[in-house]
UniProtKB/TrEMBL annotation:
Gene Ontology BP terms: vesicle cytoskeletal trafficking
Lineage: Eukaryota, Metazoa, Ecdysozoa, Arthropoda, Chelicerata
Gene Ontology MF annotations: small GTPase binding
Domain of life assignment: Eukaryota
One GO cellular component term noted in the UniProt record for this chain: trans-Golgi network
InterPro entries per UniProt: CCDC186
Protein name: Uncharacterized protein
Length: 134
């Protein structure tokens, strides 16, 4: 008799835990959906605010003015032809290598931030799971 009661009690506990797991999985799915919506919204605002990547018309006019004036390394870049006597192949390669190093550093930082963001979102999901599980 006590064995049957114990089996029934364990079955009830199993049913309760399964219901709780189902609830938590559904809730987790909802939270992930909300997080995806918010990350899309953040990406939209970040892209909207990131004006450094987009050149305005006044910047283009300034570049044209500099290239017509014929001054310096940047003028050579805007004209696509050398207007500066100091711009040699070696100097061009040196500038290219420095820009390449800056690009690699920026990409590495972006990847690191992406990994950190992923870890934070997983941590937040897990901490919520454990709070609900208590």
């Amino acid at each position: 008799n006590t064995l049957i009661e114990r089996i029934l009690r364990l079955q009830r506990q199993l049913i309760q835990r399964n219901e709780k797991i189902d609830f938590l999985e559904e809730h987790n799915g909802q939270l992930i959906g909300e997080m995806k919506k918010k990350s899309k919204l953040l990406q939209y605002y970040i892209l909207k605010e990131e004006t450094g990547a987009l050149a305005t018309e006044s910047m283009d006019k300034n570049k044209a003015y500099i290239s017509k004036r014929g001054g310096g390394i940047m003028s050579s870049l805007y004209n696509s032809s050398s207007t500066d006597d100091t711009m040699t192949l070696e100097r061009s390669l040196e500038i290219n290598n420095k820009l390449h190093a800056i690009l690699e550093d920026t990409l590495l930082k972006n990847m690191t931030l992406k990994v950190c963001f992923g870890k934070i979102s997983i941590f937040n999901s897990n901490s919520l799971f454990f709070k609900l599980n208590e």
